[in-house]
Amino acid sequence: MRKIKIIDQTLRDAHQSLWATRMTTAQMYPILDQINRAGYDAVDLMAMAHFDSCVRYLREDPWERIRLVRDKLDVPIGGWMRSNNLIGFEAAPDDLVELFVDKMVDNGINRITAYDGLLDNSNIIDTLKQTKKLGAQAVAAFVYCDSPIHTDELYVERISKLLKEVKVDAVMLKDAGGLLTPDRVRTLIPAIKKTIGDLSLEVHSHCSTGLAPLVYLESVKHGADAIHTGVAPLANGCAMPAVQTLTKNLRDMNYQLNIDNQMISEIEDHIRMVAKTEGFPEGTAMEYDAFHYKHQIPGGMLTNMYFQLEQAGIRDRYEEVLNEISTIREELAWPIMVTPFSQLVGTQAVLNVIHGERYKFVPDELKKYALGYYGELIAPIEQNILDKIIENGSKDIPLQRQPLVDVVPQLRKQYPNATDEERLLRFMIKGNHVNEMKKAGPINTGYNMTNDSISTIIKSIIDQKKFGYIQINSSALKLKLGAMK
């Protein structure tokens, strides 16, 4: 009986997909014991979006979050690195990326997944090598795309080249757009598995087209060793499949899993209470949408784009923008629709539709993409489109990217009394956000499930500590709380 490993995404990608990365440490802290005992082979916790959200919106120190979770979990804790940058589109200096990886491991991340949206291995090899050097697990993720040039042969070639340069613990097929189909995995999974041999093959997909649960089952049948799931209600929708359903199906198919259903049930109950208390949505099954394969825009970005068009008074041109996205993808050599490339394509499509002339206005980031600033393109851009981008884009952008200079010495000089962790946050997140985060103080790990007025009154009275007892009377209830000192 073959064992299938389960990687949990409840604390990372699940709430990023469904709750806009707004899960607080206090909301996850009460279930860390259950997560630790649930039978997971790894628990992913952080990516760049989580560092940003912790500081900018939650006023939490993300490094403190890592340490708090580290102290509660025995299973490997995962962090993700996108290409050779941190937050934003631009590549970060090598010394900064190296320091970031070092501090991730120092604070408790012992499994790092690195991926690049252009499948340019040179953007992730250094991170993977450093991860191994620091004694953490290194996972090389290859982003899936549905296009004429993203063939099985391309993935085999890129994976083979990477494995010749760096030793990793696992290879992952990362399907951020939920584009994989059961038919495709029947050829792609065996091809990758043949290439990597005894290395663990992980599959990470989203339910955006409704196919991910079937894709997982088919992937396992054809050689996948691990799948990424969330605990419903932090599953389905545009998140990943639910561990509850997949566990049942895989066991029915005679695969062995270490998942403890009782622990999962307790985690589920807590998440449902958090969702109800905070007004957060619960993931629901998505219907199949064939048009999704044409534009391939992630679900969260579609929502934002629709809102922006509504604000601009052109909501009625939404379908036109989606069709323009499909055209631009082909013209730009089929970029994989993950950050930052989905944003680049979506922005250009909106500009083309609004102004009525294609590529009349070109954002700086799109010109940099076309010039190879973010990595080597898999195929050439159509020449007439490339000419328009270069001509209409900013003349301040050199045709070749200039070498990046080290910044860590300057950061240490600029913030002499700060830790390296704080210096990294100040580089990544501009403005006053880090100061506001520090002003908020240490993370509160206690979460109050009830925000109603009665519980607030009771808490206020208890905090005063000067009453002998509290008595609440109503026509249907008499409650007396005493012996308070």
Automatic annotation (TrEMBL):
GO terms for molecular function: pyruvate carboxylase activity. It comes from the Bacteria. Transmembrane segments: none annotated. InterPro entries: Aldolase_TIM (IPR013785), Carboxylase_cons_dom (IPR003379), PCB-like (IPR055268), PYR_CT (IPR000891). GO terms for cellular component: cytoplasm. Pfam families: HMGL-like, PYC_OADA. Residues 4-265 form the Pyruvate carboxyltransferase domain. Gene3D superfamilies: Aldolase class I (3.20.20.70). GO terms for biological process: gluconeogenesis. This is Oxaloacetate decarboxylase, alpha subunit. It comes from Sporosarcina newyorkensis.
